[in-house]
Amino acid sequence: MTSLSDEIEEFIKRMLEETSGRLEIRRQRLAARFSCAPSQINYVLETRFTTDRGYAVESRRGGSGFIRIIKFSLGGPGRALEFLSDRIGDSVAQREAQALIERLAEDGCLSPREAALMRAAVDREALLVDLPYRDRIRASLLKRMLVAVLSCPPARGEQE
Amino acid sequence: MTSLSDEIEEFIKRMLEETSGRLEIRRQRLAARFSCAPSQINYVLETRFTTDRGYAVESRRGGSGFIRIIKFSLGGPGRALEFLSDRIGDSVAQREAQALIERLAEDGCLSPREAALMRAAVDREALLVDLPYRDRIRASLLKRMLVAVLSCPPARGEQE
DNA sequence: TAGGTAAAGGTCAGGGATGGTCAAACCATG
DNA sequence: CATGGTTTGACCATCCCTGACCTTTACCTA
Which of A10, A79, A133, A154 could lock onto A159 through a cystine, CB 3.0 to 4.6 A? Predict the structure, then answer.
């Protein structure tokens, strides 16, 4: 069930944790380690280490080239709210919504239960209506839920 | 008479018991095992593994795709969930929803943040559509959020 | 300094492998 | 024989992975 891309993603994330969010790799070396085409690495980076998910990827070609991966933190609930309200427009696809929720959870702005709750709410099955209205309702819900939860003090012993 | 769908249902449920409520399958493999069309599997999932019955189904397409089936324990805090999913019909007014959330919060089944989150979600302003659809969406949201949150273990130092 | 070369990484289209959807056919039951 | 749950097949959407070809950079050599 777990694809090569998933494995590479996990590998990179583990490395990132050990290096406190900043990492430089050689594309070819990594590809060799997983016995795959070098472009596979790009695929993984493009699909899993996107800006939405809080990563920045830079690179340099040529001799002594590299790929640098940086994980950004949202910097606490206050900033998160500010950041997110800019990003969410009048319409949001399920994928985007889930990426945002995932990121907030990883950053400790949401408890696992809060994240589960929000994931359930933005699921297309829950919204019952067709596009394009569904995406509008999702955007509305997401914004309101975020404001509600992020401006409410976390329970003791939770997020920080 | 037991239909093929019934057999597949039984099979999946047995598997779920052996794997403590979480299971990943290949649609094609399962279809092959029962010598039926792959879409038969979807039919079984749609008709028998619904949210109302306490199941969640996720999936991924493409290479190394899968279908994941999760069984929620309906015997959460005070067996509230079992009671509630019966009690919430296809349509719920904002007033009822809020009363329900309030009640759960007072009973300690929901943290203040979780309650705030849910209140925001069932607010008529958030749902954007007119009656009677609004009340339907609210019912759907409410049930799904409750299943999600109540079958997720509470954080330490929270609810009890 | 100019030019060449080797050594990175980037792009993109395409093929294969899954699962999803939907309408029509099928069939058991009252 | 009407109804509603089953079952199927045709067609669609998504995801993974690769290989051929392109661009950029460092460094060496004349």
Answer: A154
For A5-20, the pLDDT digits (tens) are 999 999 999 999 999 9
Check if residue B2 sits with its Cβ under 7 angstroms from strand C: no
**Strands lying side by side in the sheet with B55-60:** B22-25, B66-71, B55-60
- CA-based nearest distance B1→chain A, Å: 31
Note the CA–C1' distance, B1 to C25, in angstroms: 21
| Chain B residues touching residue A111 (CB < 8 angstroms) | 111, 113, 155
pLDDT in tens, A81-120: 888 888 899 999 999 999 999 999 999 999 999 999 999 9
Q: B48 vs A104, B60, B75, B96, CA distance in Å?
A: 33, 20, 19, 28
Instruction: Check whether the bond before A112 is cis (ω within 30° of 0).
Output: no
List, in order of start, the domains of chain B with CATH numbers.
Answer: 4-71 (3.30.56.130), 77-150 (1.10.1200.150)
